[in-house]
Design a protein that fits this description.
0% strand, globular
Length: 73
């Protein structure tokens, strides 16, 4: 779900989900390679086909949510 994706990202960043601008590159919030690997593992466990490279390509929360929801369908 959109909320689940947002909460997972926020948890990795140690932020409240509402503090994250959905159109800002997540690297500006400190999302690093370790966090990306962790998130990809979580999303794959929930049925989404997401790769590390996909997170780099879809680097804002808005783009990432759209991509993950499409890939899970």
């Amino acid at each position: 779900s959109t909320k689940g994706i947002m909460l997972a990202v926020a948890e990795q960043l140690n932020m409240d989900a509402l503090e994250i601008d959905p159109y800002v590159d997540l690297k500006q919030y400190g999302l690093d390679s370790v966090a990306i690997v962790s998130l990809v593992g979580v999303w794959r466990a929930h049925g989404a086909y997401v790769r590390y490279e996909d997170v780099l390509k879809h680097n804002s929360l808005h783009e990432l949510v759209s991509f993950i929801l499409q890939s899970a369908g």
